[in-house]
Amino acid sequence: MEKNSSGIYKLSGYDEVEPVEIEAHFEEIKAQIIESIQSAKFSIWVAMAWFTDNDLGNELWKKHKEGVNVQVIVNDDDVTKKNGLKFGNYGIEYYPVAPDSPWGKKIMHNKFCVIDLKKVIHGSYNWTNNAKYNNENITITDSRELAEEFAGQFIELKKMAMGSL
């Protein structure tokens, strides 16, 4: 402990750990996702194997219009081509990742969203119209450290989509 000029003792050599909040959801998943999207102030990065849910897409569009950086990565396959939302038509950064790789078929099967580089939504829930009929789950974690890890993965997927890898 060190005493500062005001006579207050402070721990030295101690890195304050940010609190981590974790919530698991098995019901009302879509409502939880919408609430999290609506809380975004700066950025929303979504990597979703399949994205066909108009309600979730509209929430992203609203945040995009407010100036929030919205980026979406999806699996580039027939499901996306036939039923996927056309984010690129609305000015949202949109990156389909081809299912082929140098090692054979490798689909982009991630299901996560990073909000403001401090919150992560991830789990089994694809952002599709059919997901509400399945037994699904998400975890919403407020953790800058975890968000940075997922953001790193998002950047790698984006590079893949852009042909940088």
Structure description:
- This protein is of the alpha+beta class and 165 residues long.
- Helix content is 28%, strand content 28%.
- The chain is built from four helices and eleven strands, in the order βββαβαβαββββββα.
- It is globular.
- 30% of the residues are buried.
- The mean pLDDT is 84.
Brief characterization of the structure:
The protein is of the alpha+beta class.
What fraction, in percent, of the residue positions are helical? 25-40%
Unreliable parts: none
Envelope shape: globular
Total helices: the number is: 4
In terms of structural class, how would the helical and strand content be classed? alpha+beta
> Whole-number radius of gyration?
19 Å
Strand content: 25-35%
Main beta-sheet strand count, sense and barrel state: 7 strands, mixed
Q: Number of DSSP strands?
A: 11
List keywords for this structure.
alpha+beta; globular
SSE topology:
Layout: E1 2-3, E2 9-10, E3 21-25, H1 29-39, E4 43-48, H2 54-65, E5 69-75, H3 78-83, E6 93-97, E7 100-101, E8 104-105, E9 111-115, E10 119-123, E11 138-142, H4 144-161
Parallel strand pairs: 4-5, 5-6
Antiparallel strand pairs: 1-2, 3-11, 4-9, 7-8, 9-10, 10-11
Helix pairs in contact: 1-2
